[in-house]
Predict the structure.
Amino acid sequence: MSTAIYPGSFDPVTLGHYDIIERSSRIFDRVIVGVLRNSAKSPLFSEEERVNMIRHVARNLPNVEVKAFDGLLVEFAREEKASVIVRGLRAVTDFEYELQMAQMNRVIAPEIDTLFLTTNLKYAYLSSSMAKEVAMYGGKLSAFLDPEIASLVRAKFAPEK
Ligand code: ADP
């Protein structure tokens, strides 16, 4: 059985992430979306919220599981018996960092490969931070986020009552 890990911060999960999750679920028998727990980025959403949001968008993909992790990604992959790490590539700006990380992971865990899926062109510009910025200024989120996720993001930026 082939298992892949798709790791990230997913703060929050976007339609671009979903596109990668859905495509991975057609390539692998089992896909585990790994939510990075102690992201240095001080996330807007808690680990639990991020996990639940991905579970919501992936609810119709039976071979996709969502788990939080911390520590080394390759250790998490080993625990889950995954042989592949999936990452999404949007533009050349992603490339240098992604290449470095893939090479480092390969030194630590030669049995695990990194597979890059190029973004759906529709979402090439899209990142969680862009979506949050649009939300902060009250913009329309339907092109970036699942409707349910969009309302959760809007609620985070709504003025306190
Ligand atoms: P990280 O902090 O690990 O970069 P992100 O949640 O920002 O976590 O992204 C997780 C993965 O999804 C990364 O491989 C990233 O390149 C990819 N990704 C992010 N946005 C998109 C998108 N719009 N299309 C395709 N892949 C994307």
Summary: The longest helix spans residues 92-108.
